[in-house]
């Protein structure tokens, strides 16, 4: 007997036996399959989103509602059946042969894709299972679908399916979908849904995103017409009805639904869905699963971000467009201790679309905001460099024709301190520093800090100022700055802490990486350096009154530096932090071009980013007591190597004089070009000396019988003068004036002057200025009494230089009667002015 005949006989005998055995096994499995009917009959559960404190923040999906079978339009019921399961009304609940054939093919092909699931199976999958493609899940899906047929009629099953199926645009069920796409409330007016609209909805279950009429109208139109052809094929409509419906235009539009997350929290909802998708959680799971999502969001911070980015142009912070298209942006704020996202926005209101571009994950060059990470951080970490180390800032060729430029052009300082290089964002000095610490050292530090660098990036010095092949995004930059604000430790940035399903089972929980990026001392030094950036340098627009703010600006231009033909900017950054949170702000166009770009006028766009950081922080921290970093900024460096430690003091020339008309002490001073916004005036007192005083160049005033009291603040002003009328005759006052930035923090060092009022008339006994670090010029304090009788007014101005010790007798010219003698010990260079009216007064201030 031939082999094929033997195999045929064997198959005829064996297959029925195997089939019977499999059928018996399946029926046994079916009896053991449990179906929780309560889950099936309950309306679709909303997904609940919790904030970082465990409070309900928002709900995804509309409030639960169910339609009865008769409330669902007949055309919609028929369209679904014709497309999803055309044998639904006539097929048996248990078709063992079809089940086994489907499973056999699935096993042979190692997947579970044979045929489409029936409506009953789809309902079972929605309620009890997930979209797993394994054979075991396919078997459960089939078994549960069969079980449903035992407890409910086909009409009830179809109604429950249409109540729970996901139909795109975050709509669950035909009631919500009809409202979302067409503004039709089926519960109130089921006849308002037209045939072509019903066909469009029926075409969505298989691929809700691909056939989304708002995102892919052509694909949706083709799919709708396929559904109409199916309805005609299976006898639900006539050919004429199908043809007429196919001619109808696609008029689906987005309709807002009250209490929907996309309506109440649009910016955050976009970020949440994007973050979830990047972690393997689909939009369908979020809106359909009745999940509990525990996030790290801080409602106050998120409200601040939303307020600024949902406005037309909050506080004028956003730069104006060069064309009709507004510039886009992104913001991310995180908790530096936990890595949790506190607030975020991936777009502005003008460019917002549901599930559109989420720019917190959009990459672009970071510009100079990479400098603390790429060269200044690793330089300090090495222990070989300090804030006062000198960097070469001369225009030079770093090899291969690479000649970076500074923003001031060729006229800037040729030698700068490391502090000044970062504070004033000096490109040449920064590239020079990376070259000298070693390109591999800098890039290794940055990569450890979470910055993704390609092989090309790691081989060229342009990476020092943001020249990268793929760039970075706002989330990565916030994470990279986090160690500066957390003693050198980085905790992985995340938005979702965990997700549980309706049974309380954890379905997602991130495993957060924690890394030591740098030493605590390096983090502290970099924080102080970046406080300088905000207090004195390129980031002053980020100052928040009363708060410690550190950070760095970044501007990316079309040309390689400022020497190009165009002064056009691709994008801009400010990355910074307070003691409470780290923030990254990005501005730019999605497709930069000569038609879509920023400009350096009227502001460097990085200043706009700093302003956005400032206002979001100010709103988020409203009502909270201001906080400063444990150590304040370094004194502002002049930048030149010859005066690298020189303090750039906002105040010089403090002078005290008697105001006869107001009967008070008048203080005046000169303000240097700094960012001082106000001045604090303090005063201490002592009893005036009766003997002769002497000065030795120190901040002392001779006194008799009393010692100086502690200084107390007596006032403040935003002018460069102050009148003190709360004085007493015979008392010596030492005044101290301190410049303050807009954040309320001291700028530079205070200056002081001493003034004596004997018998109700003034006698200035000395003036002094305190300085820190290698100040140029001298400090002179003179205290002395002049004796003699004089009438009229006399004055004499002369130049003196040198060391004088002992008693000097001066014969002033003018209208004088009497003799004036002053005792002084001083080392001074400058001008000395003596005014006498009856009694001689010596008043001198050295800068």
UniProtKB/TrEMBL annotation:
PROSITE patterns: FN3, PROKAR_LIPOPROTEIN. Residues 650-759 form the Fibronectin type-III domain. Residues 688-712, 751-847 are annotated as: Disordered. Residues 768-847 have a biased composition (Low complexity). The keyword Transmembrane applies. Keywords: Carboxypeptidase, Cell membrane, Cell shape, Cell wall biogenesis/degradation, Glycosyltransferase, Hydrolase, Membrane, Multifunctional enzyme, Peptidoglycan synthesis, Protease, Transferase, Transmembrane, Transmembrane helix. GO terms for molecular function: penicillin binding; peptidoglycan glycosyltransferase activity; serine-type D-Ala-D-Ala carboxypeptidase activity. GO terms for cellular component: outer membrane-bounded periplasmic space. It holds the Pfam family Transgly. GO terms for biological process: cell wall organization; peptidoglycan biosynthetic process; proteolysis; regulation of cell shape. It comes from the Bacteria. InterPro entries: Beta-lactam/transpept-like (IPR012338), FN3_dom (IPR003961), FN3_sf (IPR036116), Glyco_trans_51 (IPR001264), Glycosyltr_51/Transpeptidase (IPR050396), Ig-like_fold (IPR013783), Lysozyme-like_dom_sf (IPR023346), PBP_transglycosylase (IPR036950). It catalyses: Preferential cleavage: (Ac)2-L-Lys-D-Ala-|-D-Ala. Also transpeptidation of peptidyl-alanyl moieties that are N-acyl substituents of D-alanine; [GlcNAc-(1->4)-Mur2Ac(oyl-L-Ala-gamma-D-Glu-L-Lys-D-Ala-D-Ala)](n)-di-trans,octa-cis-undecaprenyl diphosphate + beta-D-GlcNAc-(1->4)-Mur2Ac(oyl-L-Ala-gamma-D-Glu-L-Lys-D-Ala-D-Ala)-di-trans,octa-cis-undecaprenyl diphosphate = [GlcNAc-(1->4)-Mur2Ac(oyl-L-Ala-gamma-D-Glu-L-Lys-D-Ala-D-Ala)](n+1)-di-trans,octa-cis-undecaprenyl diphosphate + di-trans,octa-cis-undecaprenyl diphosphate + H(+). The keyword Transmembrane applies. PANTHER family: BINDING PROTEIN TRANSPEPTIDASE, PUTATIVE-RELATED, PENICILLIN-BINDING PROTEIN 2A. This is Transglycosylase domain-containing protein. It comes from Alicyclobacillus mengziensis.
